[in-house]
Amino acid sequence: MTVYFVLGLGLVVQRLRPLGEQTLAQLSWLVVQVLLPFYLFYSTATTGLDTLKASPLLVAAGVVVPLYNYLLATFALKASNVGPEQTSAFRFSVMLANTAFIGFPVCAALFGPTGLIYGVMYDFGTTLVMLTFGIYELNGGRVDSWRPLIFNPLIGGVLAGLLWSLAGWGLPAWFSAPLSELGKTTLPMALLVGGAQIGNIHSSGLRWWRQIGGLTITRLIVCPLILWGVFAVIGWQDLQANTVIIMAAMPVGLTSAIFAKNYGADAEFAALATFWSTLAVTVTLPAVVFLLV
Questions:
Q1: What is the pTM for the complete model shown?
Q2: 46 part of a folded domain
Q3: How would you class 177 by CB atoms within 10 Å of its CB: exposed for 0-12, middle for 13-18, buried for 19 or more?
Q4: Best CA proximity match to 242, nearest among 233, 232, 255
Q5: Is residue 266 part of a domain?
Q6: pLDDT tens, position by position, 78-137
Q7: Does an H or E element contain 103, and which?
Q8: Of 21, 87, 182, 224, which has the fewest Cβ atoms less than 10 A away?
Q9: Which residue range is the domain that position 63 belongs to?
Q10: Is residue 123 packed enough to be buried (19+ CB in 10 Å), middle (13-18) or exposed (0-12)?
Q11: How many domains does the structure of the chain reveal?
Q12: Sign of torsion over alpha carbons 95, 252, 20, 186
C-alpha cells in the first residue's frame, strides 16, 4: 500500500500543480544518475557474496523474459486487432517494463535490499535487450550505439559495490551512515517522480481500446502468469524467481513513448499503453504478489 500511496501522490501533485517537462527530466536524471547508483553501491557493498552469486542467472532471465514477451506480443497482434502502424510500438511496449521507477521500489518493499539487488541484476539483462533488439525493432533493423548500456550508472553502482564486497572491505561509519540515509529517500523519490511522469501523460480518449486492452492483458497478466507456472513446474520458487516474476509484472516503461518517437514508431500509442497499463497494475500487481506469498 505504501508503494501505491507514494506513486499516487506523485500523480495527484502533477495533475494539480504540474511540473514542467524540464523539471521532470531533471528530477528523473537525479534519481537514475545519482541517487539510485549510490544506493545500489551501498546495498551491494553490504550484501553477502552468497547473494551476489545469483548474478548470472538473473541477468540471463533479464535477457530471456523480454524476448519471450516479444513472442507473446507477436501472438497477441491479431487478437488485439493491431494494425501495421502500431505493430512496432505494441511489441516494444510489451517488452519494455517500468523496472526503475516502479519495479525497483516494489522489489525493495517486498524483499528488502536483496530483492532490489536482484532486480537490478535482472534489469541489466532487460537493458541489454532493449538497447539492442528493442531499438532494432523500432528502428527498422539498426542499432546505432552501445554507449547507453556500457555507461549505465545503475550497473556501475552495482559493479562498484560488488568489487568492494569481493575485496572484503568494510564501510566506515562516516561513509555508511550518509549512504544509509540517502537510501531511505531514494525509493520514495523514485516513486514520486514515477507518479509525476505518469500524471504528465495526457490521454485524449482511448482511440485504440482493443489494442491497448490486449497489450495490457499480455503485459500484466499473461506474462507473469506463464512465468509463475513455468517456474512452479521446474521447481524454481525462491527469492530470485519471485523477483523475476514481480519485475515481469510491471507496466509499460515510462520511456516507451520516448523510444518510439525517437525511432519512428507510434509514440502516441506507446504513451497510451504506458498510461493505461500503469493504472491497471494497481489491480493486477496485488494479485501477482498474492500468488507469491
A1: 0.75
A2: yes
A3: exposed
A4: 232
A5: yes
A6: 888 888 888 888 999 998 888 877 888 889 888 988 888 888 889 878 877 877 787 777
A7: none
A8: 21
A9: 22-177+204-292
A10: buried
A11: 1
A12: negative
